[in-house]
Amino acid sequence: MRQRIAISVGVGLAALALHALWANATPSSRQAATHLASYRWQIPEGWFGGFSGLIISEDGTNLLAVSDRGQFVQAALLREDSQISDVTNVRRAQVLRKNGQFAPRPIGRDTEGLALMPNGAIMVSFEGQHRLERFAQPGAIPRAVAWHADFDQMPKNAGFEAIATAADGTVYAMPEAPIGAEDVIQVFALKGGAWRKAFTLNRDKQFQPVGADIGPDGRLYILERGFNGFGFRTRARSFDISGTQASDEKLLFQKGIGRHDNLEGLSVWRDDQARIRLTMISDDNFRLIQRTEIVEYIIDP
């Protein structure tokens, strides 16, 4: 029996390794982004972890994140040779309900997506009880955001994780699970208080959209995650959305299980070397076997 178990485990590990190699064997001509660095962030407090949404300041020195347990977290990023060396000045505030209270049950606190509006307001998406809300600042009382009938089709724990805002204030949102056809990501747009179906993106059933941002180049960037029981796959793509359809799809990177943890939050900015930088944060699900990491990729001009 022990021998059979050992053989089974050995075969399983070999298959796992082959899968990781296969997932990383994407043609180099399609790998537009290069991994710069990963920083493991640790704070020995019960509230720390579960980060799913991320905003990085234009100069890359500050972050705002939200966690699955309803916490806004702000911090300063110290850098050496353009890489994160420390995270300091950490502050947090509860994500409040419209009544000014903290949600009494976890299902009401499950904040997932995060996006910055042109006027400085913060847009947040919730997954336990599907909705979007607007906050003037961390810790403020939220304002409700309009709803669309199609959103009622979103399964529990598979709603809006990926949201982004354009320079004109348009909010783009995409559900983690398909609404309608299984092979497309339906992107919705909110402008002038009303939602519309904006466009669709090709969907690979191995990946789900979990983060999004509009870069300084005006392109839509999406972070996608896959899980197969052993670990997390990660990839990022970008699209031109200057018209009524998304076009010019670019695969920026694709990594197999074990390369990164559960990356869910994405923020795109331009560094002092004119490079587009993708900064991502992982959701450790408050599990000791996972980690909170801040990962950065760069796209040379």
UniProtKB/TrEMBL annotation:
Protein name (database record): Phytase-like domain-containing protein
KW Signal (keyword) present: yes
UniProt KW Repeat keyword: no
Protein keywords: Signal
Domain of life: Bacteria
Domain Phytase-like: 47-286
Signal peptide: 1-25
Pfam family, one: Phytase-like
